[in-house]
Amino acid sequence: MATDEIEGFVVVGYEHDRMHVDWDVEVHATREAGDKSLAECRQAGWDWSLYALVPVDLSARERKRTADERRIEAVRQLLHGGRKTVRADDLRRALAGEA
Description:
About 50% of the residues lie in helices and about 15% in strands. By secondary structure, it is α+β, with helices and mostly antiparallel strands. The protein has two domains: about 1-55, no CATH class; about 60-95. A three-stranded antiparallel beta sheet has the order 1-2-3. About 10% of the residues are buried.
């Protein structure tokens, strides 16, 4: 799957074997994107039978990524020093971002 950010939207391309997409949502998002963005994408060579513009809240995405990184780091800390086992409660807290 390819992605490029264009003016607050993400261009999402789906491969032929991954067509389990709700195209109604994608087409609706494409209409909201406006003619200017669509024209820029067409000039860039995007194939609109496979690609759509999807609006994205970059700040929300950034917050999620940061939270995911904290969870990953918490699990790393649990496994620090080559430990192969951890308490279930500790792992649950780490995955919930509470560790």
